[in-house]
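Journal club prep, shared notes

We agreed each person brings one worked example of a sequence with its structure written out as tokens. Mine is Trm112p-domain-containing protein. I'm keeping it raw so we can talk through how to read the token line rather than staring at a rendered picture. Sequence first:
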Amino acid sequence: MKLLTLNFLTCAIKTCKTSPASFPLHPRDAELEIIESEINLPFLRNILPRLMWEEIRVIASELGLPSLPTTPPTREDLVEGASQAQATEQAEGEAVAEVEEVPSQTAKDLHRILLETGIKEGKLVCGNCAHEYKVMEGVANFLLPGHLV
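Then the structure, token by token:
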């Protein structure tokens, strides 16, 4: 279960729906796994406005991951300054610049935390009711017992 997923999950118990303490779910006894992947800058740019930044920072600190800055990065922070521009000639003789974007260290760190780091085993705990959702083999079980539905 990627850490990015925790940005979109809340407690499934009805009484917690109106409580702000039910979000985010807090990882406990988590066994983390890192699965490396290629950085996807367009995805990071598009997901930035949707991130609940303070909650992501709390989750990262609870898991002992490197601390994130107090303010969320901007889209411009994800790309290093002037990158390599190579001019190529088209058939008509016009010069067209192909710009290769180089991810910044901020982009690499954010990618590592959100998309490469996952919870393999452990629990997700509601901050309101303390209900625990088990995570096994990277999948969280959100099925509730009958008395909590």
